[in-house]
Design goal:
Elements: E1 2-3, E2 14-15, E3 21-22, E4 29-30, E5 34-36, H1 37-41, E6 50-55, H2 60-71, E7 75-80, H3 91-103, E8 107-109, E9 112-118, E10 121-126, E11 132-135, E12 140-144, H4 151-157
Parallel strand pairs: 4-9, 5-12, 6-7, 6-12, 7-8
Antiparallel strand pairs: 1-4, 2-3, 9-10, 10-11
Helix pairs in contact: 2-3
């Protein structure tokens, strides 16, 4: 499958089954499997033993997925597009979540923007230095990127 890692992509948003709009267009990622956070949470995808989570938002999603997958015995690398995992969270929430994933052995890679993927390699770029970051032996790439309007409404209307 080919997905675009950049939530600023100019392609039309795609409405999915839970009512939120996710960005998708055809460039940069040529790897299988590439899944989004919601597919993991809804158990809609088989997740391999070695996982890279590309966390664009810096909220609970990346950290929560990292904890969930690491607790299930997977090797997890959390690449965050900021200075720290969970930077959008309040400090006491962030620090508690970071402590939990650290105890589970999750590797956190800060300042990392997903650039692409192919085969078993995820390509990232350091957002300050622009240097490449290569992550090899990736069995599953999970995108924890943004969504647009409709998310809260979808939660309320899905009950």
């Amino acid at each position: 499958s080919m997905l675009h890692a950049d939530p600023q992509c100019t392609a039309e948003p795609v409405q999915n089954c839970c009512g939120r709009e996710c960005y998708s267009c055809t460039t940069e990622i040529e790897a299988e499997p590439v899944i989004d956070a919601w597919q993991v949470l809804r158990s809609e995808a088989n997740v391999g033993g070695s996982v890279v989570i590309a966390d664009w938002r810096g909220d609970w999603t990346g950290l929560g997925l990292a904890e969930y997958l690491a607790a299930a015995g997977r090797r997890v690398r959390l690449a965050v597009n900021g200075f720290a995992a969970g930077e959008a969270l309040q400090s006491y929430v962030r620090d508690t979540m970071v402590a939990r994933v650290a105890k589970l052995g999750v590797e956190i890679i800060p300042y990392a923007r997903l650039f692409g993927a192919d085969g078993t390699t995820a390509y990232l770029q350091h957002i300050a230095s622009a240097e490449p970051i290569l992550m090899e032996d990736v069995e599953t790439l999970v995108l924890a990127h943004g969504q647009t309007k409709g998310f809260g409404f979808a939660l309320c209307s899905s009950r």
